[in-house]
């Protein structure tokens, strides 16, 4: 991520925190920074392991609560772990996910066709739609290669 994009995201982060009367503590900043620097969709454990280098006395609970608070106020998204721990997504652009059932990787992808998929009318009547994200499941290229090699 380039510096301008990073500073823009931190500005949005601070703005959303203030709008929700959430103190911007050094620990919360560190959690958000670790999210922005992470590759893919990290778990709370991944973020905790990154942040504890800067804050050795920080607890896993503090990191987890920060992540869940960020998700609740719309700074990040929570991604289902498909039986594994929750994962977190800091990518603000509308996108979809491919979940590899072999290795557990979650890969972002963009698809105008999926963005335009028709929402069933019964869902529209019963629910208030705030966003959409399609999840495809299967095997990534690396897992497919390993499977062929057996």
Description:
The chain has 150 residues and is of the alpha+beta class. It has 2 domains: 3-89, Arc Repressor Mutant, subunit A (Orthogonal Bundle), CATH 1.10.10.10; 96-149, Dna Ligase, domain 1, CATH 3.30.1490.190. The protein is 48% helix and 13% strand. It has 7 helices and 5 strands, in the order H-H-H-H-E-E-E-E-H-H-E-H. It has helices at 3-19, 26-37, 44-54, 60-72, 112-115, 121-126, 141-149; strands spanning 77-79, 87-89, 96-100, 106-109, 135-138. It has a 3-stranded mixed sheet, with no helix packed on it. The chain has a two-stranded antiparallel sheet with strand order 1-2. The longest helix is centred in the first third of the chain and has 17 residues, at 3-19. The model has no long low-confidence stretch (mean pLDDT 89).
């Amino acid at each position: 991520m380039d510096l301008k994009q990073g500073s823009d995201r931190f500005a949005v982060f601070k703005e959303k925190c203030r709008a929700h009367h959430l103190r911007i503590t050094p620990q919360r900043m560190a959690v958000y920074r670790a999210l922005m620097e992470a590759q893919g969709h990290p778990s709370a454990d991944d973020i905790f392991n990154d942040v504890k280098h800067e804050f050795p006395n920080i607890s896993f609970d503090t990191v987890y609560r920060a992540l869940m608070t960020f998700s609740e106020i719309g700074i990040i998204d929570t991604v289902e772990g498909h039986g594994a721990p929750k994962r977190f997504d800091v990518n603000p652009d509308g996108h979809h996910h491919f979940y590899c059932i072999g290795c557990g990787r979650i890969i972002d992808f963009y698809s105008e066709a999926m963005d335009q998929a028709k929402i069933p009318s019964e869902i529209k009547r019963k629910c208030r739609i705030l966003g959409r994200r399609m999840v495809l499941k299967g095997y990534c290229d690396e897992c497919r290669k390993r499977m062929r090699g057996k």
